[in-house]
TrEMBL record:
<dbReference type="GO" id="GO:0005506">
    <property type="term" value="F:iron ion binding"/>
</dbReference>
<keyword id="KW-0223">Dioxygenase</keyword>
<dbReference type="Pfam" id="PF05721">
    <property type="entry name" value="PhyH"/>
</dbReference>
<keyword id="KW-0560">Oxidoreductase</keyword>
<dbReference type="GO" id="GO:0016706">
    <property type="term" value="F:2-oxoglutarate-dependent dioxygenase activity"/>
</dbReference>
<keyword id="KW-0408">Iron</keyword>
<dbReference type="InterPro" id="IPR008775">
    <property type="entry name" value="Phytyl_CoA_dOase-like"/>
</dbReference>
<keyword id="KW-0479">Metal-binding</keyword>
<protein>
    <submittedName>
        <fullName>Phytanoyl-CoA dioxygenase domain containing 1</fullName>
    </submittedName>
</protein>
Length: 274
């Protein structure tokens, strides 16, 4: 069975050794340096209405920038960090692939463009990137979701590249995927609300499946390809080991990208190809 056939059958593809250990280590070191240089203007728990709006603005303006997001459990009740900043960041997003030279080079590594084409994209554009730390003990659970919910196009074209920069296990919060679940249709969209902030727009009220997920325990350097409609999730990291990962999401330039999608880029910084 070809890789394209396997991807179409199960909605994901596991490719061990796609990235070298040296490349993974270089990304980890660069991400840690970015966090070390990051000086947050406000370190607090976002609970009040005003703070939520500030958080929304920071999040909503991150589509063409490099922004830093804390773990939900990183803070004490008084708003101070439970542990050092380097162990408190949830992720960096969402334009590392364009704005940081090392991440830009990695995101356009040989073979990625050909793989995107092989899996169905006619004119792939790199739209979003995230460095995900999955911190020891506090790395939060990510509920079951479909990437096309957040990166919606007409027709649906979202394709995810997920790189394990460290070994991913059940204990430290590996991915879980629902084989064949991408054939069940898209449930909802995440959009910019008319009055500000964001909202989910229901497309299909059918509940997301809860059974049938399989763990994707993979070694460092593995690339997992994810269909935009595939339900997937990850557990909390209850272990003393981190689970660093880097993901890039592509869409097809031939598709329509709606203006009410949450992620928008400035006109002078459009999504680029490989």
């Amino acid at each position: 069975m070809s890789r394209a056939d396997e991807f179409e059958r199960q909605g994901y593809l596991v490719l061990p050794g796609f990235a070298s250990e040296a490349a993974c280590d270089a990304l980890k070191a660069r991400a840690e340096a970015l966090v070390a240089a990051f000086q947050p203007e406000t370190v607090s728990i976002f609970t009040t209405h005003e703070q939520t709006r500030t958080s929304d603005a920071y999040f909503l303006s991150s589509g063409d920038k490099v922004h830093f997001f804390f773990e939900e459990n990183a803070f004490k009740p008084d708003g101070t960090l439970r542990q050092g900043k380097a162990l408190s960041i949830n992720k960096i997003g969402h334009a590392l692939h364009d704005l940081d030279p090392l991440f830009r080079q990695f995101s356009r590594a040989p073979g990625m463009a050909a793989l995107a084409t092989e899996l169905g994209l006619k004119q792939p554009l790199l739209l979003q990137s995230m460095y995900i730390f999955k911190q020891p003990h506090i790395g939060g659970e990510v509920n079951s979701h479909q990437d096309s919910t957040f990166l919606y196009t007409e027709p649906l074209t979202c394709l995810g590249f997920w790189f394990a920069l460290e070994d991913a296990t059940v204990e430290n919060g590996c991915l879980w995927a629902l084989p064949g679940g991408h054939k069940q249709g898209l449930r909802k969209r995440f959009v910019r609300a008319p009055g500000g902030g964001t909202a989910f727009q229901v497309l299909d009220p059918t509940p997301m499946p809860e059974e049938g997920f399989v763990p994707l325990e993979v070694k460092k350097g593995t690339l997992v390809m994810l269909h935009g409609q595939l339900p997937h999730k990850s557990g909390a990291n209850t272990s003393p080991k981190s689970r660093h990962a880097y993901s890039v999401h592509c869409i097809d330039a031939t598709a329509t990208y709606p203006r009410d999608n949450w992620l928008q880029r400035a006109p002078d910084m459009p999504a680029q190809g490989f």
